[in-house]
Amino acid sequence: MSQIVFKESLSSSILRMRIDAPRIAKKRKAGQFIMVRPTAQDERLPLTIAHADANAGWVEIIFQIVGQGTTSLATLNVGDKVADFVGPLGRPTHIEQFGRVLCVGGGVGTAPLHPIARALAEAGNEVTTVIGARSGDLLMLEAEMRSFSHAVHIATDDGSVGHHGFVTEVVKQLLETVAFDFAVVIGPAMMMRFTSELIVAKGIRTVASLNPIMVDGTGMCGGCRVTVHGKTQFACVDGPEFDASGIDWTELTKRLGSYRAFEEKRRDEHQCKLKVTP
Amino acid sequence: MTESTEPKKKSKLRPRNDMPEQAPEVRRANFAEVPFGYTEALAIDEATRCIQCKNPLCVAGCPVQIAIPEFIALIARGDFGAAARKLKETNSLPSICGRVCPQEDQCEKLCILAKKGMPVAIGNLERFAADWERDHDAAQLPAKKPLNGKRVAIVGSGPAGLTVAGELVKWGFDVTVFEALHQPGGVLVYGIPEFRLPKTIVQSEIDYLLRLGVKLEKNFVVGRTATIDELLSEEGFDAVFVGSGAGLPTFMGIPGENAIGVYSANEYLTRSNLMKAYQKDSTTPVLRGERVVTVGGGNVAMDSARTALRLGANESVIVYRRSMTEMPARSAEIHHAQEEGIRFELLCNPTAILADDNGFVCGIRCVRMELGEPDASGRRRPVVVPGSDFDIQCNVVIIAIGNRPNPLIQDTTPDIKVSKWGTIIAGEQDGRTPKPGVYAGGDVVTGAATVILAMGAGKAAARSIIEDLLGKEALDDPPPRDAVELEHRDEP
Questions:
Q1: Helix/strand/coil percentages in chain B, nearest 5
Q2: What pLDDT shows up at residue B488?
């Protein structure tokens, strides 16, 4: 259990891993996440499930190396076991036949978008997908998305692939020509905020999948609380998806920075140590 | 020693022996346990204070009816190993109960010597015997009945679940405990801090159950990884006991409560205890406020405020809306907190949490309260003193006003019944729920309460499971009491 059975780099800082976890592979639904503790010294990291195969018994996660936990996870290889792997957590995405659906993924947020977009397509929706990244080499899952999407649009900040600019600009154009019935937006908080504001302004029901700081992922700590329509909700058990029109984005963005000083200090200390003991 | 080998039945009332403990100014800067425990001589001296009542009232005060006079007599005789075994006949977690039970409201309250204000220190003695057994590696496994072919799933590895597991495994059941977190023990490991309950003690109690044959599945969230119905059907369990506790934190619903630096006590204590944020090289961050305010008056509030000191706070303040008299925390915990320099702002209720431009906590706004007429709980209701607003500067706020049960199991098990407080409805005396094969007990049924009440509920539910799966007559044929010697036992 919890052995890494597949690992590949999607870019210099983004990794795809498959973990042997038959129960979770069988049970998981689109939109749910897992908590992984790479080693017994690490924190518990919440990662949304990118894909799973119930028959083969693996669960796929895609993550960007950003902090100590993801760095630690990235050092593990096929055959290694993660210390802990638990799930599937959170409420699954509500899937039904809405009609025309817009799925927008930003950066590594494209990974959790993938199973949701796929499930929506399988439920008979016409799925239009927009994926964005800083540059072409950070783009992911384009081929997978194309396999079930009605159309796939791409935006890169540096213009190396697709539209030169942000996903918001592509979404804005699409909204002028297509009447969508439902939208899903997943990515960095700022991207979700501005994208969903455009879509919501058209009166389209939009959900965003939030990834706030959490400790246990089962409702115990309350660290992941977000304000939605003026009410405090726990992303781990009430979410991770919420009605984007009611999310307090300012609060979410601030709370995501809770430990920035701690992380920077640790990074500095770590680099110092590296210098003295080469 | 020979003088004190027999209980002194008619001796003049000697004062109760306190446990030696770390000095407040030392312990407020470390996470080591506060009391050191009795020495053998102190334990014998305390045990001989027990007058061995013919009709001991203390036992009636114990939710699991420990044979109190008997185990104390064994300590008085210097047979500490036998005392520990006597405890374990009825209480599978004595070293934990000896530390965290509210004895002053249970056994010790009813002790005949309590009339003179100096009850026998039953809790200290319980702790001593259990610790002695562990320290001398003298634990013996009780004899088990042969496997009876029935499988029981236990949801949650806290005190309720561990008690059911310990009971049923002795009766020959194949028992699996499912734990959502990566470490077993429930509130004993994520909630209660090291300085009050060292984690090695919890681990050794769990190891004992594993040696008895209990199976443990960590990282398994019942309700998500598998539902109760799936455990009963696909996974082939004959019964499920739900002891998932009260782990969902309650917030106050006041402005600013989502500012950075506002923690539920659960999160603060989990970061410190389970995730080891208190260790220097830990990768888990916790905001180490210079001034920390904890809201609440229970044991969890005391644990939080005292943890804050140990994490380096210059000032740790408890804000509680009633007076000291109504405070639900154990008096010993309040006393320890006061000794360590925790400031108590009593009759004081928060109305808002103040944050700076970046969203970090910078203070808490409170109003003064006064006590009015008694409310439904029988305690005098606090009433706001108009115009008494004032601010306390702080950079961390810990909300310790109580927990509710996590709704995950209730939401995914359609045919169990849930109260308006979110607790599972189960028989108080038998732990049975309306759903056949499903039992529940502990905080998930009562709402947040004590370790020993959860254990009492676990014992009751175990009895029901035995009765329902093996038949009523099975209860007349309990597992033998003779202990089996462990192979690696060290002679004391």
A1: 35, 20, 45
A2: 40
pLDDT of residue A278: 38
Q: How far apart are the first and last CA of chain B?
A: 17
Whether B489 is covered by a domain: the verdict is no
Total count of domains within chain B = 3
Domains and CATH numbers, chain A: 4-89 (2.40.30.10), 100-256 (3.40.50.80)
The reported pLDDT for the residue numbered B277 is 80
Range of the domain at B108: 2-135
Distance of CA B408 to the CA centre of its chain: 22
Buried b or exposed e, range A31-62, using 16+ CB within 10 angstroms: bbbbbbbbbeebbbbbbbbbbbeeeebbbbbb
B182 vs A contacts (CB less than 8 Å): 37, 44, 83-84, 86
Distance CA B286, CA B276 (A): 10
Q: Do A42 and B283 touch (CB under 8 A)?
A: yes
- The verdict on B112 and B192 lying in the same domain is no
- Comparing C-alpha atoms, which of B213, B164, B155, B225 is closest to residue B184? B155
Residue B407: other Cβ atoms inside 10 A: 15
Residue ending a domain, choose from B116, B135, B154: B135
- Give yes or no: residues B262 and B362 share one domain: yes
Q: Is A107 on the interface with B (CB under 8 A)?
A: no
Residue B442, in any domain of the structure: yes
Alpha-carbon gap: B249 to the closest alpha carbon of chain A (Å): 6
Alpha-carbon distance of A121 to A99, in angstroms, equals: 10
Q: What is the DSSP letter of A89?
A: E
SS3 of residue A76 by DSSP: coil
Task: Specify the DSSP class assigned to residue B360.
Answer: B
Q: Which of B180, B218, B224 sits opposite A88 (nearest CB)?
A: B224
The pair of structure tokens assigned to B360 is: 């970090």
Measured in angstroms, the CA of A10 and the nearest CA of chain B are apart by 26
The whole-angstrom separation of Cα B298 and Cα B301 is 5
CA atoms within a 13 Å half-sphere pointing along the CA-CB vector of B478: 9
Segments in chain B below pLDDT 70:
1-12, 482-492
Binary contact (B258, A227; C-beta < 8 A): yes
Is residue B395 within 8 A of residue B261, CB to CB? The reply is yes
Q: What pLDDT, on a 0 to 100 scale, did the predictor assign at position A109?
A: 93
Distance CA B272, CA A99 (A): 48
Q: Which of A32, A86, A250, A262 is the mutation pick for testing B, counting most B CBs within 10 A? A: A86
pTM, two decimal places? 0.90
Q: Which pLDDT tens digit goes with each residue over A66-75?
A: 888 999 999 9
Q: Are residues B103 and B176 in the same domain?
A: no
Helix axes B299-310, B265-272, angle to 10 degrees: 50
**Which tokens belong to B338?**
């006061």
B308 and B436 both lie in a single domain: no
Q: Would residue B492 count as lying in a domain? A: no
Q: How many CB atoms lie within 10 A of CB B19?
A: 18
User: Residues A195-216: pLDDT tens digits?
Assistant: 999 999 999 999 999 999 999 9
Distance CA B122, CA B105 (A): 12
Chain A residue closest to B267 (CA)?
A221
Nearest CA in chain B to A25: B225
DSSP of B204-256 = HHHHHHHHTT-EEE-S--BTTTB-HHHHHTTT--SEEEE-----EE-----TT
Look at residues B401, B416, B436 and tell me which one is the last residue of a structural domain.
Answer: B401
Query: Which residues of chain B lie closer than 8 angstroms to A41, CB-CB?
Result: 283
Q: Do B215 and B261 share a domain, yes or no?
A: no
